[in-house]
């Protein structure tokens, strides 16, 4: 039987704010398979960002389990959890979270700094990734010299630096005009179609359903339903048939973008 890349089982999360308990997740369960692109829709405050943070291993559930390729995150040591975040997960947020004092290429290369890679290797991979989004000519600019859409593209390719299995993307277009937003959404779709990333993307925008294969609806801390979005492309069917596991963003996969 095919193993999900991510399996969440009955996730509950309670935030304690002084005397008050905020129940952000109330038994959220779902599975994601390799190479699929899933949209997570739901009203403000229903727990979408909380869910992403648990899958990313940035926070721990109050109860319930997150499995990544069958591995229970609650069984990992602090070091193993840090590796999980760095190597397996790429995260992209609404506020691009770029470092203002670093150039564009240095921002992209940052995950390689933490991985202890050489300057040459960092720059080579960062430049290659910037080419994917046609941003190589801005490599030596500062983030503040770029438009919002350009900054988000930089943040997206930074998340690819370590070849993550899974991209967790939270409201990526919330700060963008509609033209930039569509460009960013198109690029994310290509990442799924051509380089087989497994993607979970949070949005408020139902128009984006056309980009994804599955739509998960969330309300009051639970997954209400999971429906098909657009049909899987031939290449995605191939991924499923080969029981692929969300392989790395290889040089070969990069060429296809
Ligand atoms: N760090 C925190 N401390 C306390 N409460 C929190 C924290 N993070 C989230 N919450 C609460 O948990 C609930 C779910 O929040 P969450 O941010 O996951 O919702 P969301 O679906 O992402 O909302 P939005 O669409 O507005 O981004 C909310 O009631 C929120 O106030
Ligand atoms: Mg949120």
Outline of the structure:
The protein has helices at residues 48-55, 78-88, 104-114, 119-132, 148-160, 178-195, 234-241, 251-256, and strands spanning 6-17, 20-32, 37-41, 63-68, 71-72, 89-92, 166-170, 198-203, 214-219, 222-228.
The CATH topology name reads Rossmann fold
Kindly report the spatial arrangement of strands forming the biggest sheet. 6-7-8-3-9-10
Summed over residues and divided by their number, the pLDDT gives a mean of 88
Overall outline: globular
The CATH architecture category equals 3-Layer(aba) Sandwich
How large is the count of helical segments?
8
Supply the number of structural domains: 1
The proportion of residues forming helix, as a percent range, comes to 25-40%
- What is the CATH class name? Alpha Beta
Strand content: 25-35%
Q: Which ligands accompany this protein? A: adenosine-5'-triphosphate, magnesium ion
Distance between the termini: 30 Å
Major sheet summary line: 6 strands, mixed
What sequence of helices (H) and strands (E) makes up the elements? Answer: EEEHEEHEHHHEHEEEHH
Computed over alpha carbons, the radius of gyration is 18 Å
What's the CATH H-level superfamily name? P-loop containing nucleotide triphosphate hydrolases
């Amino acid at each position: 039987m095919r193993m999900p890349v991510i399996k969440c089982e009955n996730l509950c999360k309670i935030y304690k704010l002084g005397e008050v308990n905020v129940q952000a997740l109330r038994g959220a369960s779902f599975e994601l398979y390799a190479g699929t692109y899933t949209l997570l829709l739901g009203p403000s405050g229903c727990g979408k960002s909380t869910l992403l943070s648990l899958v990313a291993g940035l926070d721990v559930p109050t109860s319930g389990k997150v499995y990544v390729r069958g591995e229970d995150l609650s069984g990992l040591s602090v070091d193993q959890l840090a590796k999980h975040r760095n190597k397996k997960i790429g995260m992209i947020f609404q506020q691009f979270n770029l470092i203002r004092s670093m150039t564009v290429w240095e921002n992209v290369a940052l995950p390689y700094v933490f991985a202890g890679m050489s300057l040459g290797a960092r720059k080579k991979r960062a430049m290659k990734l910037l080419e994917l989004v046609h941003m190589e000519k801005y490599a030596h600019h500062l983030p503040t010299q770029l438009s919002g859409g350009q900054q988000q593209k930089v943040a997206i390719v930074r998340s690819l630096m370590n070849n993550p299995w899974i991209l967790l993307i939270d409201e990526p277009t919330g700060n963008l005009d509609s033209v930039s937003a569509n460009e960013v959404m198109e690029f994310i779709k290509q990442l799924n179609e051509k380089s087989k990333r497994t993607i979970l993307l949070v949005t408020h925008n139902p128009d984006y359903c056309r980009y994804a294969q599955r739509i998960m609806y969330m309300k009051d801390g639970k997954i209400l339903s999971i429906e098909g979005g657009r049909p899987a492309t031939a290449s995605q069917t191939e991924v499923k048939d080969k029981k692929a596991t969300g392989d790395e963003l290889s040089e070969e996969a990069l060429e296809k973008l």
